[in-house]
Specification:
473 residues; mainly beta; Pectate Lyase C-like; 5-stranded parallel barrel; 3 helices
Length: 473
């Protein structure tokens, strides 16, 4: 089989190769030599800071964490300093009630996004205006005491927070109990997140207004458990853009591939924060095993243009809503921007089965929902197979779907279609698309409202004759 790579992927390979040499630094220091105990009980924050500061002062290098458990509060990352967390080493977040974390810095634009998105210093590790930083190794970052909700003063709510940084590599680590975010990056460029294992009760990786990013071969399970059962969670990978930096920041040139994803919310998600625009973003060869909201979610809520996006070779199971594309007029930014645009999105080689959200007992039809005067444009489905639970009734076929400002699939309620519900859209193409059901569904497979330009080439729906595939309203 011939493998083809895009120019963007070739540049990323060069970037990762180059960064691998940047991470091999002449100077190496050991946190033990600066007084770190690694016994899991003694607070090692001061000793780790001394190691990082000394390494930085001497021009940069590598700070080693040999096997042991290093209990710590907020750690300040530095430019040209790599953290090497070796096999058997654990960086463990201190309890939230001992005042070990830096205070959340003021943010005059905090009203436009949640607390967790607005602040960066209340993290287990954070960096701002940095370059050439690597966090790697076979060890573990365990958030320990950090919270998945807003922290009290002196507490933390995220594992790794990066603001306005560039040339960042995070690789081969396990990140556990990441709080609100295992990795939060805002306004960052040239990032590689490689071979990460993330087990966290809320967001796995959130990229806010980031560009030139590669996420490759990561296993992310953003699910919260109670008594051994799934009880909630949040987005596995979120591509977003908020107003935390006091300006609109775009997201561009992002590749996500070869990942295994599971979420108590959405797995591959645009939004909800969508202030800046998004373009040239590609997902491929990913397995999604549980999303209690959307397996693939694309929402523009705060005026963003989302365009030139592709999903290729995606396998989904246990997703409440396999594909969910939505424009709302929420406008959570200064001057309440008008509704945004979603266009030029391609789905190729997509399968979804067992379409059900097992945490909240939800099931929804795949949806493309624009707004009057703000249509979603040029969406192409090629070689897509979705098997729904079915069970829809004739009464449900008459449901009128609301226009909520909320972005979650549940806020639209039950759809009147069994396969795809599409409204306010232009140039929607289906090529070799099959819709099936585990039990009979009495709703029409396709319901269209204010849709211009629909292509049905080998579109089939189980149990529906050709003349009853589409209903226009």
């Amino acid at each position: 089989m011939r493998v083809r790579y895009s120019l963007v992927e070739i540049l990323f390979v060069f970037f990762v190769w180059n960064m691998s040499f940047a991470g091999t630094r002449a100077l190496t220091v050991n946190v033990r030599d600066y007084g770190a105990s690694g016994d899991g009980h003694t607070l090692d924050t001061g000793a780790i800071h001394r190691a990082i500061e000394d390494c930085s002062r001497r021009g940069g290098g590598t700070v080693r964490f040999p096997a042991g458990t290093y209990l710590t509060g907020s750690l300040h990352l530095k430019s040209h300093v790599a953290l090497q967390i070796e096999k058997g080493a654990v960086i463990l977040g201190a309890p939230n009630d001992i005042n070990a974390y830096d205070p959340a810095e003021p943010n005059p634009w905090g009203q436009y996004q949640d607390f967790g998105h607005s602040h960066f210093h209340d993290a287990l590790m954070w960096g701002e205006h940095l370059e050439d930083v690597t966090i790697s190794g076979s060890g573990t970052i365990d958030g320990g005491g950090i919270t998945r909700s807003d922290p009290d003063p002196g507490g933390g709510d995220k594992a790794i927070a990066l603001k306005l940084c560039k040339d960042i590599t995070i690789r081969e680590l396990t990140i556990k109990q990441g709080g609100h975010f295992a990795v939060l990056a805002n306004g960052c460029t040239d990032m590689s997140l490689l071979n990460l294992t993330i087990r966290t009760p809320r967001d796995g990786i959130d990229l806010m207004g980031c560009s030139n990013v590669l996420i490759d071969s990561c296993d992310i399970r953003a699910i919260r458990y109670e008594d051994g059962k799934m009880a909630g969670g949040d987005d596995a990978i979120g591509i977003k853009s908020d107003y935390a930096l006091g300006r609109k920041v775009n997201s561009e040139h992002i590749i996500v591939k070869n990942c295994f994803l599971s979420s108590g919310c959405n797995t591959l998600q645009f939004g909800s924060e969508t202030v800046g625009d998004f373009r040239d973003i590609h997902f491929s060869n990913c397995v999604i095993d549980h999303a209690d909201k959307a397996g693939i979610g694309i929402t523009s809520n705060d005026g963003a243009i989302i365009e030139d996006v592709s999903y290729t070779d995606i396998r989904m199971t246990k997703t409440a809503n396999p594909i969910f594309i939505l424009v709302t007029g929420r406008g959570r930014a200064p001057n309440h921007p008008p509704a945004g645009v979603i266009r030029n999105v391609t789905f190729r080689n997509i399968t979804a089965e067992d379409c059900y959200g097992y945490i909240k007992d939800r099931k929804f039809t795949s949806t493309i929902s624009g707004l009057p005067g703000h249509p979603i444009e040029h969406i192409v489905f090629n070689n897509v197979k979705i098997t729904y639970k079915g069970g829809g009734t004739r009464d449900e076929a008459d449901i009128q779907v609301p226009y909520p400002e909320e972005y979650s699939p549940r806020h639209l309620g039950v759809r009147p279609a069994s396969g795809f519900y599409i409204r306010h859209a232009r140039d929607i193409q289906f090529h070799n698309v099959a819709v099936g059901f585990e039990q009979e569904d009495l709703r029409p497979p396709l319901v269209l409202k204010d849709v211009r330009g629909i292509t049905l080439e080998q579109f089939t729906a189980q149990g529906a004759p050709g003349d009853s595939l589409v209903e226009r309203r």
